[in-house]
């Protein structure tokens, strides 16, 4: 009973803070995920169709990002990236900029996500049977139209499971931003636990909120998967 009453008291005092932290987590996660998809799409296309120099550069990028722990990358990109940007602006005669926490979080995690998205999308593009794109070219479609109207719709169902997993990872990676002072769900939980001394209750609330995000995400991805696999007999049966 003490646990329940303490949790109710915690939510009464810190409920708005938890909600703001959850919203900030979702903002950073969604923004960085979309940025990761953008980077990953260009990265996958570059790895498959680009020249040798571009392919080598993208290979170095994806290998380096996936080899180094995310926490180190976040600290490196945030501090070194911000310093490099302001030093460059000063050298060019411009005023320095103060990047907001949400924007910085989106950029940092988006760069990390982009490396993983590149490999997921590349694998899905390679898995599309070549006969499908050859048929489009035979009908007189340009390569851009083939990519947009044939290749992308065919590869989305193949990439979706990996992309769904990356979204789940992205929502968890936002917690790492607490080390640089971003007030998202993890940092709010730490603050609430520290001030109220209700550690078990605070982290239980955070766990429940992360679980809600995961369950809601599962529903969304299931709906997207059902829609994108229509007309794919093999995928419909899975």
Task: Describe what this molecule looks like in 3D.
This protein is mostly helical and 238 residues long. Helix content is 84%, strand content 0%. The chain has 9 helices and no strands. The radius of gyration is 22 Å and the shape is flat. The mean pLDDT is 86.
Characterize the overall form.
flat
The proportion of residues forming helix, as a percent range, comes to: over 70%
Tell me the radius of gyration: 22 Å
Number of distinct beta strands: 0
Strand content: under 5%
Q: Which parts are unreliable, with pLDDT below 50 for 5 consecutive residues or more?
A: none
- Separate helix tally: 9
Instruction: Report the average pLDDT across residues.
Output: 86
Structural class: mainly alpha
N-to-C order of helices and strands: HHHHHHHHH
Biggest β-sheet, characterized? none
How far from one another are the termini? 45 Å
Indicate the topology:
Layout: H1 2-49, H2 52-67, H3 70-91, H4 101-127, H5 130-138, H6 143-173, H7 185-196, H8 199-228, H9 233-236
Helix pairs in contact: 1-2, 1-4, 1-6, 1-7, 1-8, 2-4, 3-4, 4-6, 5-6, 6-8, 7-8
Can you summarize this structure?
This protein is mostly helical and 238 residues long.
What would the keywords be for this entry?
single chain; 238 residues; mainly alpha; 84% helix; flat
């Amino acid at each position: 009973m003490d646990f329940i009453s303490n949790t109710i008291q915690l939510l009464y005092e810190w409920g708005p803070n938890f909600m703001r932290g959850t919203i900030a987590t979702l903002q950073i996660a969604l923004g960085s995920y979309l940025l990761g998809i953008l980077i990953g799409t260009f990265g996958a296309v570059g790895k498959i169709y680009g020249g040798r120099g571009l392919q080598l550069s993208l290979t170095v990028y994806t290998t380096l990002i996936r080899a180094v722990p995310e926490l180190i990358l976040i600290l490196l990109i945030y501090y070194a990236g911000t310093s490099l940007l302001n030093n460059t602006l000063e050298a060019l005669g411009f005023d320095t900029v103060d990047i907001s926490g949400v924007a910085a979080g989106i950029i940092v995690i988006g760069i990390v996500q982009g490396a993983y998205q590149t490999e997921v999308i590349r694998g899905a593009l390679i898995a599309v049977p070549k006969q499908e794109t050859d048929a489009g070219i035979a009908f007189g479609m340009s390569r851009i139209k083939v990519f947009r109207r044939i290749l992308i719709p065919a590869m989305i169902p193949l990439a979706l499971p990996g992309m769904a997993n990356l979204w789940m990872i992205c929502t968890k990676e936002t917690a790492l931003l607490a080390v640089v002072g971003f007030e998202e769900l993890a940092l709010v939980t730490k603050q609430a636990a520290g001030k109220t001394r209700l550690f078990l209750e605070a982290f239980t609330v955070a766990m429940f909120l992360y679980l809600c995000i995961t369950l809601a995400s599962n529903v969304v991805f299931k709906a997207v998967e059902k829609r994108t696999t229509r007309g794919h007999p093999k995928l419909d049966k899975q």
